[in-house]
Amino acid sequence: MGGAHSREDLDISDSESDGEENYQDVVEEEENGERSSERRTKTPSSIDEVDAKLRALKLKYPSQSHPTIPNAVKLYLHIGGNTPKAKWVVSEKLTSYSFLKICGNDGSDEEDDEEEVESYWVLKVGSNVRAKVGLEMQLKTFGDQCRVDFVSQGVWAMKFISDDDYRSFVGKFQDCLFENTHGFESTDANKLKVYGKDFIGWGKPEVADDSMWEDAEDGFLKSPDPVTPARASQDLREEFEEAADGGGIQSLALGALDNSFLVNNSGIQVVKNFSHGIQGKGVFVNFDNRNCRGGSGLEYSTPKKALLMRAETNMLLMSPMTEGKPHARGLHHLDIETGKIVTEWKFEKDGTDISMRDITNDNKGAQMDPSGSTFLGLDDNRLCRWDMRDRNGMVQNLTDASTPVLNWTQGHQFSRGTNFQCFATAGDGSIVVGSFDGKIRLYSNNTMRQAKTAFPGLGSPITHVDVTFDGKWILGTTDTYLILINTLFVDKDGKTKTGFAGRMGNRISAPRLLKLTPLDSHLAGVNNKFRGAQFSWVTENGKQERHLVATVGKFSVIWNFQQVKNGSHECYHNQVGLKSCYCYKIVLKDDSIVDSRFMHDKFAFSESPEAPLVVATHMKVSSFSISSKR
Questions:
Q1: Is pLDDT at 98 greater than 60 in this prediction?
Q2: DSSP-derived secondary structure for 45-112
Q3: In the chain, N or C terminus with fewer CB closer than 10 Å?
């Protein structure tokens, strides 16, 4: 299937249709700058049409419908999903909202019980909505329409009578969200406690210094490379779709040279790289007892992680010890050219077996190095570098009966609970690490003992992290949003550096969030979460990543990087809190997507501003190009 834009372009207008029972109130939707082409004819009279147009002009005139009840709102429900019959209908013409504090022990309502430790805020709207205040609601604000949309067992919209009412609600919602997330009342003192004085702009975006975002935008526009404009004429075009041999794709290992690799339940399928995507039935390496050396004691199951090395002729395969958890006690080392597992490495430190939850290359382009023998490892409280050579500099004898032990050459075992979850490397080998508490730490390429910079968490665990080749941008994945961080700062000598090279001062920019609209979030499914957000792939100085891609359920979601960085972009108008970007394209597949990644920049061709996007489901793999319509 082809790409699709965000599907939140339906209109809501003040009109009546089919009498009182099917009353449909629709507010002027200006999000995409045009009205829906499928708007229904208004009946029974033209007076309603005139009234709707007057209201759209936002003229101030007295109205008998203005309520006297406190916190008055009009509540709408979205029906029809993404079908042609999709529309907003009035759920309650006139109702009110309230924020209630719920005691964790008995579930009773309290207006505000500061002494109750186990308690949380819920939003109650009329008789139809009762939801715990949280990021899962995917609340989206429309300041120019005095409206908010959110998810709670459906997609809802609340329209407020006045701008003051709207702002009062948004402020209270933000306060309740902070308290539910961090366990503290939303005060300046508590925000300082959570974010720290250097990052106060994360909790109070209105005081944040965004000058570095502006400088980065200027630098991007001055780049010698042609810039990808944010044009509607660019579209996603599916080039190839193939069924995978053996099915059950578990992971995708894209190569920057001739081949890429699909890891599935029974083996590894080798496919060819082309300028329009990956394609072809190449060699298939089966996982069986003949390929694995016996006597190691290492658990073997379908690998969940595949890491290319040595000019993409070798692959490290990591199989979890326990289903549902990523930790492994060692690796299987595959020689791709012979199709054989040549050894099984064990993780060991000071004579004690240890586990790793993730591995990655030394830097963005390390997999293309024909002599590479080292890679990075991460566990809950460990960050280290492993070497496949012994301490005397000799390559270990891979035919030895005993399982060889990887050499811990550099790293640190942290005594306190860092709860590391994921990591990635920049072009120079600098390391970014995401944690369960939401913190993102930056380590230079010459030390792993102490982070140069530690960004505070927003309350959600970081499940995946990526960094641009130049180290200027960090992209973190959480279940409900992506967080984009600018690492640039000016040191005391006036030099511009990244947070990998030194401690960032107090002029730190607030991050930007990338989210699905409430409608798309609901369509993606309640149990579907963001996974594996990544930048497009470049490995050369002076080149800039052009897009960001993430997976959620059956959606592959693509953002234009330049558009996200543009502070004057229409998405950011009339927003409250951290700037959030909702402008994206969606690739919708029939099955849940395993992974979505852009191929290496070298595979971009003249008619496309970007290398192909590869989208893998469990049974099929597809390639899409970003092309210009003619």
A1: yes
A2: -SHHHHHHHHHHTT-----TT---STTEEEEEEEESTTSTT-EEEEEEEEEEEEEEEEETTT--EES-
A3: C
